[in-house]
Write a structure and sequence with these properties.
The chain has 2 domains: about 60 residues; about 25 residues, no CATH class. It is about 55% helix and about 0% strand. The chain has 3 helices and no strands. The longest helix is centred in the middle third of the chain and has 32 residues. It is elongated. The N and C termini lie far apart (about 90 Å).
C-alpha cells in the first residue's frame, strides 16, 4: 500500500504568502472548473482581494528588512568604539564629580543611587 504524500503548509510568513498567491492564481485560472469552488466561507473568491493586498504588504516587509540589514551594517561597526568612549567619559565624569555623581544625568547617563556598602538589608537599631 502506498503511503499518503506529505504536503507542507509553510509557517514562514513570506513562504506562506507565496503559496497562497500561487493557489489563488491557479484557482482564478481554472475559474468555475476549480475544485476549490466547493469550499465554504471564507472562500477564495471572498478572500482573493486580501491575498493580493497581503502579498503586497509582504513584499514591502521584505524590502524594509533588506534596508534594515544595510542600516545595521552601517551602524554596528561603531558600537564597540562608542561603548568604549561612553565608558571612559563616565569614568572621567565620575572622578570629576565624585561628590555629586547625579550631575552625570546632565550628560544623559542613568545614575542609580545605590545604598552604601554594608548597609543594604540592615535595619536601624530600636531605641
Amino acid at each position: 500500500m502506498a503511503r499518503k504524500p506529505r504536503v507542507v503548509i509553510p509557517t514562514n510568513p513570506g513562504e506562506l504568502m507565496k503559496l497562497t498567491g500561487l493557489v489563488y492564481a491557479q484557482h482564478q485560472k481554472l475559474g468555475n472548473k476549480s475544485p476549490l469552488v466547493i469550499l465554504d466561507s471564507p472562500t477564495w473568491d471572498e478572500l482573493g482581494p486580501d491575498v493580493e493586498a497581503a502579498a503586497a504588504t509582504q513584499a514591502r516587509i521584505e524590502t524594509l528588512e533588506k534596508e534594515l540589514k544595510s542600516l545595521y551594517g552601517q551602524r554596528d561597526p561603531h558600537l564597540a568604539t562608542f561603548t568604549d568612549l561612553d565608558r571612559r567619559s563616565r569614568d572621567v565624569l565620575l572622578a570629576k564629580h565624585s561628590a555629586n555623581p547625579a550631575i552625570l544625568g546632565d550628560y544623559g547617563f542613568d545614575v542609580i543611587e545605590a545604598a552604601a556598602p554594608g548597609t543594604a538589608g540592615t535595619k536601624p537599631p530600636k531605641l
